[in-house]
Design goal:
- This protein has about 270 residues and is of the alpha/beta class.
- Helices cover about 30% and strands about 25% of the residues.
- The protein has seven helices and eleven strands.
- The strands form two sheets. Strands 8-7-6-10-9-11 form a six-stranded parallel beta sheet. The chain has a five-stranded mixed beta sheet with strand order 1-3-4-5-2.
- Helix 2 runs parallel beside helix 3, helix 2 packs parallel to helix 7 and helix 5 runs parallel beside helix 7.
- The longest helix is centred in the last third of the chain and has 23 residues.
- The termini are far apart.
Length: about 270
């Protein structure tokens, strides 16, 4: 009898991926059979999903660890599981987004989408034309909401890495710390596909990382744009249409993620932040 058949000659079903994913605390260093506690804010989600002891689930810690697990205990305040087998690791792309301080709701939508496509960090930049915005990227309350959206997007998309969120940062400070390649979403730049092809012709540089910078509504001022170019950012056009800042961010991050993932695949190495 072959490994793919059971005693009745039928092909066995492939391993089933757990249907629901939850955050667990401190998975690093654990082995199969160990017990892990779900994050406290996940207990209500487990109860709402009507998952009972003995059911399978996936657990992640936001730092690369992914396990198939079995729920072993659940009460009103705690949920614990037994680790069964590690799930295939997902490489973290060295992809960083500079988003403008901008409208709160649209900024939260941006967080969801760029986490789904693989951003490793999101930093909110206080561009000159961001200064009239009341609150999106500045307050601790906004960052807490953004982290919640990021966690939900990470679980939904099956990713393993929770991005680091930081806000708000003045452009002078961000540019001073910038190291590596950069794309500046800019209508006067060359088309993004040409930028991808050009990067490939220059050689693989995945390990250096890539920062995508997106300006606010109204764009960057001329001095801001000039400073970005002087810091090594390449102006990249995303198409002929005028895009909202959140749409521009998602388009640019998605293009960069696809390029970096392809570089990682061809190099045959795991890309880490």
């Amino acid at each position: 009898m072959s490994d793919s058949e059971d005693g009745g000659g039928r092909e066995s079903a492939p391993p089933r991926t757990p249907a629901r994913t939850f955050f667990a605390d401190r998975l690093a260093g654990l082995e199969a059979g160990a017990r892990a506690e779900l994050a406290s804010d996940e207990v209500s989600h487990v109860r709402a999903a009507r998952i009972r002891a003995g059911r399978r689930l996936a657990v992640i810690d936001g730092a690369g660890s992914r396990w198939e697990a079995e729920l072993v205990a659940l009460d009103r305040r705690r949920a614990s599981c037994r680790l069964l087998a590690p799930l295939p690791p997902e490489p973290a792309l060295p992809l960083h987004l500079w988003a403008p301080v901008a409208n709160r709701d649209r900024s939260l939508w941006l967080v969801e989408k760029v986490v789904e496509v693989g951003a490793a960090t999101i930093t909110w930049i206080e561009w000159e034309r961001s200064r009239s915005v009341a609150d999106a990227g500045r307050s601790e309350g906004f960052l807490r909401r953004a982290e919640g959206r990021a966690k939900a997007a990470m679980k939904q998309s099956g990713r393993s890495w929770l991005p680091r969120l930081k806000g708000s940062v003045m452009p002078e400070e961000a540019l001073r710390r910038h190291d590596g390649a950069g794309w500046l979403a800019d209508a006067e730049g060359r088309p993004w596909l040409a930028a991808v092809i050009g990067r490939g012709r220059k050689g693989r540089r995945a390990a250096s990382g890539l920062t995508v910078a997106v300006g606010p509504e109204g764009g960057l001022t001329d001095p801001e744009r000039r400073r970005c170019l002087e810091a090594g950012f390449e102006p990249v056009a995303l198409g002929p249409a005028a895009l909202r800042f959140e749409t521009a961010a998602v388009v640019a991050v998605a293009a960069a993620a696809a390029m970096l993932a392809d570089e990682d695949y061809e190099a045959g190495d795991e890309v880490m932040t």
